Amino acid sequence: MDDHKEICSLPGTTEEREWFRERLETLTVRESLFLAAARMWQPANDLAGVIQQVCSLPDYTLVTPAESYEELGRRYLERETRVPRSLHDHADLKKLGRWYEDIHPGLFIGNCYVAYPKELLPSYDSSNLSVLEDTDWSVKLKLASPAVPEGVWMRLPDYDEMNDEPGEICFALDALKVKSLHECSLLESQCILPCITGLGELYNDLAELVGDSQNLGFALDELKPYFRGKFLAVLEYEGCRCLKEALDISQNLGCYDFAEADDLEKTAVEHLEKAGVPETVIWDSCFDLKDYGAALMTEKGFTITESGSFVRRNETPFVREFSEAPPEMTMTM
């Protein structure tokens, strides 16, 4: 975003500058608002401080529209109480807004109120730049409109949209000066799944792409770390290149048997013990346990992926909700 490019001139290392420039390339409208609020709240004197601010962006919260304490008080009543709208004017909305500010310190910026994080957890210590991964998204889309041909980014999933609150999608549309996704065109796209590329070529309907991107984000958020690893391995096993197929796979992980490379030694030891091999022989380097375990998995019909996991398809029926089944191969004589 042009508003933040001057940050690159702050003192910092070459690596920090490259990290920030790369992150800036896909900074969304909503994130840009949060970063502006962060810089106003606690101005950073170097790139290390800015990187810490960027890592904290998910912890900021937004109330919009709220350009005044009166509007902030009204939004509080609408969002967090069950007081009927017909009775809102009987409350001292300005006083409520100031009370909300006391509970959730923040500042007004644009037509929004941005609340600061309650606690800024340390993320960047000037030595861990390589592990600061931006992974809390499913798909990033750069959309353009006739009024804003250079486009803006938005990141999904957008939980605010699902809760009828202004979020990533709403802020992008406002910045593009349009009312709906149908008035936009897709300039660029990124998927958190490296196997999924060329989304613009796979979708003619931008709203459908956003819907599937939302669903992928929800699915990923529901997967625990073990099952996320299994999901990625199954995508590789199936040679998945389609977002809709990835969505169906995320809902059908029970159709696959899975083992990680770390399980190979245990698998080998259990097999050798059942085969009557003494424990002292097993652990005296008489067998290459990892190779033995890998060979066992191959004999059982598992395929090893490039990431080192083992996957095989079992007999559980695969239920498709998003994608179409591939055409059946017919034998010709």
Order of helices and strands: HHHEHHEEEEHHEHHHHEHHHEE
How many β-strands, per DSSP?
A: 9
Main pleated-sheet profile: 3 strands, antiparallel
User: Which class of secondary structure composition applies to the elements?
Assistant: alpha+beta
Helix content range:
40-55%
Which residues form runs of ≥5 with pLDDT under 50?
A: none
Cα end-to-end separation: 61 Å
Shape: elongated
Which range does the strand content fall in?
A: 5-15%
Alpha plus pi helix count: 14
Mean pLDDT: 91
Rg from Cα: 26 Å
Spatial strand sequence of the major β-sheet: 1-3-2
Secondary structure layout plus pairing:
Blueprint: H1 14-25, H2 29-41, H3 47-55, E1 61-63, H4 69-80, H5 93-103, E2 106-109, E3 112-115, E4 139-144, E5 152-156, H6 159-162, H7 168-176, E6 185-191, H8 199-202, H9 206-222, H10 225-238, H11 243-250, E7 256-259, H12 264-274, H13 279-282, H14 289-299, E8 303-304, E9 310-313
Antiparallel strand pairs: 1-3, 2-3, 4-5, 4-6, 7-9, 8-9
Helix pairs in contact: 1-3, 4-5, 9-11, 12-14
Characterization of the model:
This protein is of the alpha+beta class and 333 residues long. The protein is 42% helix and 12% strand. It is built from 14 helices and nine strands. The protein has helices at residues 14-25, 29-41, 47-55, 69-80, 93-103, 159-162, 168-176, 199-202, 206-222, 225-238, 243-250, 264-274, 279-282, 289-299, and strands at 61-63, 106-109, 112-115, 139-144, 152-156, 185-191, 256-259, 303-304, 310-313. Strands 1-3-2 form a three-stranded antiparallel sheet, sandwiched between helices. α1 (14-25) runs parallel beside α3 (47-55). The longest helix is centred in the middle third of the chain and has 17 residues, at 206-222.
